[in-house]
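Appendix B, record 7
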Amino acid sequence: MKKIIVLFACSALSAMLLFGQDGPPQAFSYKATIKDSKRQAVVMKKVNMRVSIIQGNPDGVTVYTESFTPTTNHYSQIDVEIGRGEVLSGIFSAIDWSAGNYFLKVEVDVKGGTDYETLSVTQLLSVPYALYAGYVTNPDGDGDPRNELQNLVLNGHELSIEKGNTVTLPDEVNDADHDPGNEIQQLSLSNDTVFLSNGGYIKLPDQAQAGWNYNAENHNIINLADPVNDRDAATKAYVDALERKVKALEEMIKAAGLFSLKDADGNTYNVVSIGSQIWMAENLKTTRFNDGSEIPLVKENSLWGGASGPAYCWYNNDEAGFKDMYGGLYNWYAVNTGKLCPSGWHVPTDAEWTVLDEYLVANGFNWDNTTAGQKTAKSLAATSNWVISDIPGAVGNTDFPEKRNISGFTALPGGGRNSDGSFSRTGYGGYWWSSSEASPVHAWYRYIYFSFVNVIRGYNYKLDGFSVRCVKD
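Structure tokens (predicted):
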């Protein structure tokens, strides 16, 4: 059997968004830190890379492949622009980024040849889709997406919206001449009343109000009263005040010791409510399944790499040094039993991790307060134990203190155990399993790295040892 050389890298993608007259550039940046099979930094050395973009799933159709021969710097880092390498197959500019999921597969030969080994296979999230934005058309053809407020048009008794509903108005129109036939003018809508620019107004019939749809086209609705009825819209101030009350109640529950969780060993865990989900705020450290049976403890490297069933360990086989802070490391076969978490809880699916990602982005947990792009790692990471980084917004940077662990998730860099039994990356990264299988030998997981601003979705060998967070059923 061919021996696999394991390559380690911390990588980052960033979109190139300098739009010119010809649209967005057909490329995006990829950075990685390269180490050899002995985990030694590959410094000032030319390496060969092969990059593939795969559609659908990690084992799907390869739509584009190119190669690079970058030279690592003094920090063993490489930096290439994907889309501008030596093309081996496909056309980068012809990729339809709107056609489902895409994955980036990176292979490297540190000896500069073509005996490639897989470095990573990672789903592309928001990065290249900036390229797709260059092909978005504008409904009115004027090239300006900011002016897409819909028109209201009154013609006789028919009030219509440019892109949808038509409402038949009552006979009586409250203006000077009471004639709806001549009211083609500027209109505004407020609750059940259409106001005319000449000072008149029209009360909408009940059936029109009930079926009315209004698209704000991403514009703010201002001067909104506090809600009174069940279906009233709420102001931001009203929602913020309600959120403060909920958080205060959570703190009271925590202080009373009611907001915690106990495993089969009797270990207790803090938990945190994030959006519609309740998560453990610590890594799992049980040695038994929830039915009381023992999880096999595997210390030997050879036995760990040859396991075909559930197994766990402590980092560096040092229970005293790592259990309380970082919890245990479990292979995916332990996850797949469905008995690893306490009763009423479970290891999150890949989809449930995505729910967490999307909630954090949409609700202002990005380090830069944007609600586009996934930059939420700082909001999930603990404020200590991470290797220092000088990258703005990164987990290991102490900038933007108001965003650090604002979610209460308290992710720690517990590292992991590789499929060959070796341990690595404590202090640098935290890795958490999902319960979702990616292939017969791989499963999906999430990881946070000290120099990243985003939470990475990827898949890895089921034999690897990762941390586990449980989510409430």
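Remarks on this record: The first helix runs from residue 129 to 133. Residues 1-23, 133-150, 207-211 have pLDDT under 50 and may be disordered.
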